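ok trying this again, last paste got cut off
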Amino acid sequence: MLTTAACMFSGSSKAQEASQDKKAVQTDKKILIVYLSRTKNTKAVAEMIHKNVGGTLAALELQNPYPEDYKTIVSQVAKENETGFLPPLKTKIDNIEKFDIVFIGFPTWGMQLPPPMKSFLKQYNLEGKTVIPFNTNAGYGIGSTFQTVKELCPKSTVLVGFSTKGGIERDGVLFVMEGSKEKEVQTEVQNWLKKIKMIN
């Protein structure tokens, strides 16, 4: 628990430098970037956002991690979606009220928002905050994920989200955010952040 908190907040001075370097528009706003990442593609996008806007990075971890086997996790997630089960989170966000802007990142699982992200959005009160979703997927798009974020954040301002193709775990294609793909996504992220007026 303490380790997670230490990791989450250890990069604050670097984050401030990054926001100054990139001339982040929202310099007076406190930013949280929460992400769920299984094959590290969503994590890579979260880190790109962090490099541009600064803030605090937090990886969502579960009290009971999902199994490694792909078919097993697909079956488990399908059951969780059917029953509305919300997996308990190991990650704790201290003083959520101090953040003004919350980026939330996740892969598309079964064309839906992953259950752990539903857990986060139901556990923490984001009323009055600006919520910004970002997504990686296997090529089938965002599904109902962004719509679900809006439904679970009815009293938040939800901005236009970002989505890019990540790995295809079903086919054994895992981490892809490297080389030319990484550069391409970095440019896409910057253009999106400019569009939503997070950076100049």
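PB: full thing came through this time. Residues 57 and 93 are 10 Å apart (CA to CA).
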